[in-house]
Write the structure tokens for this entry.
Amino acid sequence: MTDSTAPDASQQPASQAPEASQQPASQGPDEETLALAHSLFDAARNGDTELLRSYLNAGAPATMTNYAGDSLLMLAAYHGHAETVQLILHHGGDANAANDRGQTPLAGAVFKGYADVARALIDAGADPDAGSPSARDAARMFARDDILELLG
């Protein structure tokens, strides 16, 4: 399991990052949108539940992913923020959504040893056998016997 961060549009050379008013819609989000997305991924990663709550309540998608396919839920789970995980799940986060490497939020929580996060994900219907490696395989691999019991 690895941690990923959203790309930082401010690091692009000026010639590659036109002003929002000059950028055709087909080129993707503007710098302001990328900055917002970056702050939401950071909030998930850092467990800033209140910031995420305000944006999710305003309609930000709970299923958004970064360039590596890591969802807000994956980042919150991997970094051990059970309350943030519950918030994202409440707003429609997918407990079984794998990132681009086939890793699920539950497997990330198991890998890091976060039993409280694993419990929240299991309660939301996370499949312990989904992904590669699966949460069950990760629990066995890293001797997370307490979490293995949670997985059934």
Notes: The chain has a mean pLDDT of 86. Residues 63 and 94 are 7 Å apart (CA to CA). The radius of gyration is 17 Å.
